[in-house]
Write a structure and sequence with these properties.
Immunoglobulin-like; five-stranded antiparallel beta sheet; 2 domains; four-stranded antiparallel beta sheet; 15 helices; alpha+beta
Length: 477
């Protein structure tokens, strides 16, 4: 009859023969320091198909959102060049420091909460690196190179294989397309179309950005790959501070699985063995090349491929699912877990408070921002007859969605002449315009300083009185 016979501990995953250093190394490196190419086997189980649906919904959102407009403006636009950031049609400027700070705090706290509850669910289900690598580039790679065994055979053969050259050409085209969509989030769809329509000679800077981004995408998905998760991504390093023993993780149930053994025909019917038959299906399918049976590891991205692979094996040997499953460290140890913990309560409270403050401030922003500056060069000039002229620069940032006409006036300026070449001042929507004005005072009016107010009115309910101090000859001392 069939039974499971315990075996001696399996050999190390990275066995490069004699002369290599013993011990565990980085999952993407061999023990001699050379690159270990990860060729994961696809485990197409229930979790995989759920992630597939999520992945293509995210890809559709990534591609479609730059084209979506809210109130005549892009739904999302991170215009770094002009320092304007648009979220759901609302534009934020660098001067909105409080709003931007609250927004970043809300995002970080949400990440902390999701990690405390669901571990690295973002990495396995939502991260663009994982989504494009596992659901776009790897499927194409399997189409050209075949399954894991065929890919490893091509690796051993080496050289420039024709099918791999063709695969890299397809990857280059995909990288170009992904790079252009990525740029649309930062420069806008209209500007992207303009860059693509013009000759590179006419816009060398734009062409260089597109070419550089395409090259980075190509290098990432062709060469760097899982090293982005294992080596470069900081999230893996900080997750230790964000997780606790009750956080949901992908874990191996060693109590049920150990000791491991192989399925063999023996005469003994009663052997002290576990459910793990040491088939290494969980290892072969892991996109970061770890062994989930070694416990919680920094390289694990919670992609659930090991769950699907293990459950498929359990079906074949007529064992229940769940040897590898979503659970928590506490539940594995004690059989009980807690959902409500201090951090799980405090994070949502902080998110509600900060998010509420962000929403209130965003909906109660002033319609315009007025800044008054002194003229460039000397603060004032004095004519031969004693007339003192102050140069004033006025900057108005229009925060509304329509062009506004701002009427300018001078207050507390008896005996002074107000010269404003642009009055009223036209300012387009979501733009800032700076104008230069002059204030002439009769001889003897300004001895050293004189306080005035510059009144601004857009005729649509916005008014501002900005204080300013004129300088005179006495200010030289």
């Amino acid at each position: 009859m069939s039974a499971v016979v315990p075996e001696s501990p399996p050999p190390p995953l990275h066995d490069n023969g004699p002369g290599t250093a013993p011990g565990r190394v980085l999952s993407t490196l061999n023990e001699d320091g050379t690159r270990r190419w990860v060729r994961p086997e696809l485990a197409a189980g229930p979790f995989y198909y759920r992630r597939l649906v999520v992945a293509w919904l995210l890809i559709a959102s990534f591609v479609g959102l730059p084209f979506l407009r809210v109130g005549g403006k892009p739904a999302f636009l991170f215009d770094v060049l002009h320092r304007r950031f648009t979220f759901f049609g609302a534009t934020f400027l660098p001067t909105d420091t409080v709003l931007l700070m609250l927004l970043m705090l809300t995002i970080f706290l949400t990440i902390f909460l999701l990690t405390a509850l669901f571990g690295r669910v973002w990495c396995g289900w939502g991260c663009p690196q994982t989504v494009y690598m596992e659901f776009v580039f790897r499927p194409i790679e399997r189409l050209f190179d075949g399954n894991r065994q065929k890919q490893l055979a091509l690796d051993r053969k080496g050289g420039w294989q024709p099918k791999r050259i063709l695969k890299f050409a397809v990857f280059a085209v995909l990288s170009f397309l992904v790079a252009n969509v990525f740029l649309a989030w930062f420069i806008g769809v209209e500007e992207l179309w303009r860059w693509m329509a013009l000759s590179p000679v006419e816009h060398p800077a734009g062409f260089a950005i597109v070419a550089g981004t395409t090259a980075l995408m190509f290098i990432d998905f062709v060469w760097f790959r899982e090293q982005m998760c294992v080596v470069a991504c900081p999230y893996a390093r900080i997750q230790a501070a964000l997780l606790d023993k009750n956080s949901l993780i992908v874990a191996y149930d060693s109590t049920r699985g150990e000791p491991r053994g192989k399925l063999q025909r023996v005469k003994t019917e009663d052997l002290a063995i576990g459910d793990c038959i040491d088939c290494k299906a969980c290892v072969y399918t892991c996109p970061t090349n770890i062994d989930i049976r070694e416990g919680l590891q920094m390289e694990c991205i919670s992609c659930t491929q090991c769950i699907d692979a293990c459950d498929a094996v359990m079906d074949k040997i007529h064992k229940p699912h769940g040897l590898i499953r979503y659970t928590s460290q506490e539940k594995l140890l004690t059989g009980k877990g807690k959902v409500l913990r201090v951090r799980v309560v405090l994070y949502p409270i902080a998110i509600v408070l900060i998010g509420g403050a962000l929403g209130w401030l965003a909906t109660h922003r002033v319609a315009a921002e007025v800044t008054v500056l002194r003229g460039i060069g000397a603060p004032f000039t004095e004519a031969a007859d004693g007339t003192v002229t102050n140069q004033v620069r006025l900057k108005i940032q229009n925060r509304t969605d329509a062009t506004r006409s701002y009427a300018l006036a001078l207050r507390q300026a008896a005996g002074m002449k107000w010269i404003a070449p642009e009055n009223p001042l036209q300012v387009p929507a979501d733009h800032a315009v700076t104008t230069t004005m002059f204030v002439e005072s009769q001889p003897g009016v300004i001895q050293s300083e004189w306080p005035i107010e510059i009144h601004v009115d857009d005729g649509n309910g916005f008014t501002a009185d900005v204080p300013f101090r004129l300088l005179g000859p006495g200010a030289k001392k």
